[in-house]
Amino acid sequence: MRIMGYLVFFLIALAFLCSSPTSATEVTYDGRAIIIDGQRRVLLSGSIHYPRSTPEMWPDLIQKAKDGGLDAIETYVFWDVHEPRRREYNFEGSNDIIRFIKTVQDAGLYVVLRIGPYVTAEWSYGGFPVWLHNMPGIQLRTDNEIYKNEMQIFTTLIVNMMKQEDLLAPQGGPIIITQIENEYGNVQSSYGEPGKKYLEWCAKMADSLNVGVPWIMCQQSDAPQPMINTCNGWYCDSFKPNRPNSPKMWTENWTGWFKAWGDRNPHRAAEDVAYSAARFFQEGGTFQNYYMYHGGTNFGRTAGGPYITTSYDYDAPLDEYGNLKQPKWGHLKLLHDALHSMENVLTHGDVTTTDFENGAKATIYTTTDGNSSCFLSNTNTTVDRTLNFQGNSYFVPAWSVSVLPDCKKEVYNTAKVNTQTSLMVKKPNMAEDEPEILNWTWRPEHVKDTLMGHGAFAATKLLEQISTTVDTSDYLWYMTSVKISKKDPAWSDQMILRVNTTGHVLHAFVNGKLIGSQYAQNGEYKFVFEAPVRIKPSLNHITLLSATVGLTNYGPYFDLVPAGIVGGPVQLVGKGNNTKDLSLNKWSYKIGLNGEHKELYSQNSPSGWFSNELVIFRPMSWYQTTFKAPLGEEPVVVDLKSMRKGNAWVNGQSIGRYWSNFTAPADGCNKCDYRGPYSPSKCTTGCGQPTQRWYHIPRSFLKTDQNTLTLFEEMGGNPTLVNFQTVTVGTACASVSEGDTLELSCQGDRTISKIEFASYGDAQGTCGSFEQGTCEADNILSLVQKECVGKMSCSIDVSDAVLGSSKCSNSPKRLVVQAIC
Q: Around 260, how many Cα atoms within 13 Å sit in the side-chain half-sphere?
């Protein structure tokens, strides 16, 4: 009876849900804009990738995106995480794309769903599941029936899931745009005629799925109808769609750049991101997406490249941990507010221009009812301009755009930052009773079997690593034996082991001893390892451990870029430069580490850990400790600077690869000038430092009592210096022009504890190093202290009426404040 009662209740509830009306949304377009329910829209979007954060983080990230003035969230669909093995699917936890999209919907934002399913995204193997690699006869991203069949099955699966959950706009859902393929135009020529046929097939296949919203193809100048071609890059103001009835869309405004092991940290100034966005809308754009708005973390082994870091911060408006990156977040928010206020005029008005020469011009949008909105731009990289426009004078700095919603008052200029700057700090774990130095246990990675040549299978050649491991592990063991006598022409008791590898890292053992380790430099994926070795005039065991650091994710035929010691050669070089080639020996193979197979990182790790006489700086070792979660709600990071290279887990969940001894070059970090075209090497920090020292531990990974950190150390490190900290705002600064409002705030519920500097006049310097100018108003410090100290946030109108006279003659005045949170 109970089961029958539940069944009746279920049927009644189902009938009610099926009969409940949904509010369908019509999405179309013309040459001026995406049209939603008959209204042309100015749409601002930001990329947030669901697997690069956690479900617990999603609501906060999405709300901050909405608060920042966005209309939509854009995400790829990551094929490899959803179908890690053919026809076995995973849509749980951070892979729950349905939950992610519904979270966006709950916030009242739209969704741009980039199905691909190739994603690039600095994601290992471009988001393709590696089992595709081993399908007989397959060729990826071309006119190949085997690949097209798999791609269509997965794409159809995703579309049907969206339909089943009523997530498409015509069903009342938030998805207003879908994408097929990704940046294919960048590589299409390499695939020739089959590439063109594949592109046409993609368009027809996508169109046949009847999603009811526009399909886009980014970086695809020959996108077939009804696909809309879109632009990706740092600047897309000069981009034009390939048909007059297609809107001008920018799917990726790169807010920064990704980090690679051994490189400096790239940054892109808020002024330049805003400049590029304003220029795009000045030149007729109506949809723009920031890539990334929140970059997040490459958990597990998802980072691609190779050699892309675990952090995918991307210098985005929301940092890796979800904090506001100020001033970028706030500066862009003000631009978004201005653009939204001009929506009707920008999408309906006739366009005229006034050329002021030397890179300066005015763009005027005017509707039939007489309303107008204007942009004043100065594309000169060094010369500021004062422009006389429609009877008024406007100061437009070099490489900037002024926004005048009514063509009279400037409400925004991309180079005039009136938003606070936040300097983030890391604070030690203050959990109760947490020891200053953690108690560690350790155990060696058991390698006796591999050092003796005992593998799981064998071949008389050197195998390619991706095909062999199917990316189930970063590690593949190559093992062989060689018998050499003193009569051999090459024999010497001191020989050279030479290994040609496409790596990306190699550890070499001869007769049970580690003789050396090496990794590729400067982003290369291949190198030659050479090391001296003592060879016995009898049987010698040679064991090579090849490690990958993310699989190639971009370029024509990127899927065919090899990894491992495929083909070699592997040689012993001896007396008289005579060589003994071992490439066609019988080689034994083993995939992965013994510790991986035993799941030493799991919460139910097996026994066998040593708690006394901790051994440090030992390669191929496992370390484990327990810790309490830091107090509060601020993001948690672990400092792994004292380690070298390996992998880290918290409570059995991977927080990614670490490689702390791969440091950036000591030079090349210069003061950033936002003016002029951007490149990743233009504005960098971190010279001479580890590319990544801090590793994100999402709060949802932590338990309230005891937590476990497990490290596999590949090259030898010192875990005794590992520690946990939280990330928060340390110093908040603002420099605001007269006539605007200064706003300061600390993160979360923290309050402003001190005002270190305050000036109303012509103060000089930047956040952390302000200096008094030549003219100052009196008693500014005490006034600001009264308004701000002890509060979570404060605001002050910047005017003589509030602050008093600054005694500055005709020079522009600013209120400058530096506060401690």
A: 18
String of DSSP letters for 189-256: GGGHHHHHHHHHHHHHHHHHT--SS-EEEET-TTPPTTPEEEEEES--TT---SSTTS--EEEEEESS
Note the pLDDT of residue 807.
76
The one-letter amino acid code at 54 reads T
Gyration radius from the chain CA atoms: 30
295-309: burial string, b at 16+ Cβ within 10 Å, e else: bbbbbbbbbbbbbbb
In order of their start, the domains of the chain are 39-325 (3.20.20.80), 339-418 (no CATH), 424-445+597-726 (2.60.120), 448-592 (2.60.120.260), 738-820 (2.60.120.740)
Provide the residue count of the chain.
Answer: 821
Burial of 750 (0-12, 13-18, 19+ CB in 10 A): middle
Close Cβ partners of 454 (under 8 Å, ≥ 6 residues apart): 479, 588, 590
Q: Hey, which residues does 181 pair with through a beta bridge?
A: none
Nearest to 276 by CA among 293, 298, 259, 253: 253
> Could you tell me the pTM of the whole model?
0.96
d(C-alpha 380, C-alpha 342), whole Å: 26
CA 531 to centroid of chain Cα atoms: 37
Q: Which residues are catalytic?
A: 183, 252
If one counts every other C-beta atom within 10 angstroms of the C-beta of residue 148, the result is 19
Specify the pLDDT at position 129. 98
Separation of alpha carbons 658 and 655, rounded Å: 9
User: What pLDDT digit, counting tens, does each position of 458-493 carry?
Assistant: 999 999 999 999 999 999 999 999 999 998 888 888
pLDDT at 811 over 80: no
